[in-house]
Write a structure and sequence with these properties.
elongated, 12 helices, five-stranded mixed sheet, alpha/beta, single chain
Length: about 280
């Protein structure tokens, strides 16, 4: 699954999910974005920036990790400090690392233990999230990301219904539903699209960003193939025209129809037709 893209979209279209995960703060106080650290062209997965300068709310650096990386803390903290040095925000900050599972966490380096002790580094493991009854929608989407494929589709359909029932804003509702559908599509990268259409519902699938991206790629590929065919057809037509123009000259040199056809890689009928047209 394209986890970086999924989590970026999740935090962007439904920031409440992030605050439900960390258990504090509200999206109303923040603006979410992906920020490039100019010095070395780093790009952080996402940052929640307080909407007001000199806010009591901390800057929240976020990093999602779904694979082994022994240097994750060094890299993440370096990127965060570089951005702090550039922006000089004059407010508190926190670094939030979200691992798929505990085994991907190499452990906070001892050099950063003091920051962890005062809560500036916080770590979460998605597969250890406690399920609630009912689950807040944001946490339920996190659970969907880790849901086994055989049960994921039904869970997704339940979440779509929950989204329609709990989110009154039509734009936010549409974006969250699109994200839920994207998660399902990404879970089945090796299954032919027709099977996914049958499993998930063609009309619903057509609304996903994944489906639209694939359709656009296919459309562009089709246009390019058409262009290439046109170019090839034009080249072949021009090549054939040149060969046919050479037929009378070769005949004047005394070559037979068979010899001309062999020399120009033409059919004898084409040679005869060209000779007839030149008379």
């Amino acid at each position: 699954m394209k986890t970086d893209s999924i989590f970026y979209q999740l935090f962007k279209v439904f920031p409440s999910s992030f605050f439900q995960l960390i258990g504090e703060g509200t999206p109303e106080d923040y603006t979410f974005s992906s920020v490039e650290v100019k010095a070395l062209s780093f790009r952080l997965d996402g940052i929640f920036l307080p909407k007001r300068k000199r806010s009591q709310h901390p800057i929240l650096f976020t990093e999602v990790q779904f694979w082994d990386d022994e240097d994750i803390y060094w890299r993440f903290m370096t990127e965060s400090f570089l951005l702090l040095g550039q922006e000089k925000p004059n407010c508190f900050w926190q670094a939030i690392l979200i691992f798929e599972k505990r085994s991907f966490d190499p452990g906070i380096p001892k050099e950063y233990h003091c920051l962890a002790d005062i809560g500036q580094i916080q770590v979460f493991y998605l597969n250890e999230l406690q399920r609630e009854t009912p689950d807040p929608l944001g946490l339920a989407i996190f659970h969907l990301i880790l849901e086994p494929p055989k049960t994921a589709v039904n869970k997704a359909k339940q979440l779509i219904e929950k989204t329609e029932d709990t989110i009154p804003d039509a734009t936010v509702q549409r974006n969250v539903i699109g994200l839920i559908q994207d998660i399902i599509v990404y879970k089945f990268p090796t299954i032919p699209r027709r099977e996914i259409e049958a499993m998930f519902g063609l009309e619903e699938l057509r609304k996903t960003r994944y489906y639209q991206d694939v359709a656009e790629e296919e459309r562009q590929a089709g246009e390019r193939i058409g262009e290439l065919r046109g170019e090839l057809k034009g080249e072949l037509k021009g090549e054939l025209k040149g060969k046919l123009k050479a037929v009378p000259r070769l005949a004047a040199l005394g070559l037979t129809v068979k010899q001309i056809a062999q020399a120009l890689e033409l059919k004898q009928a084409q040679v005869k037709e060209a000779l007839k047209a030149s008379q």
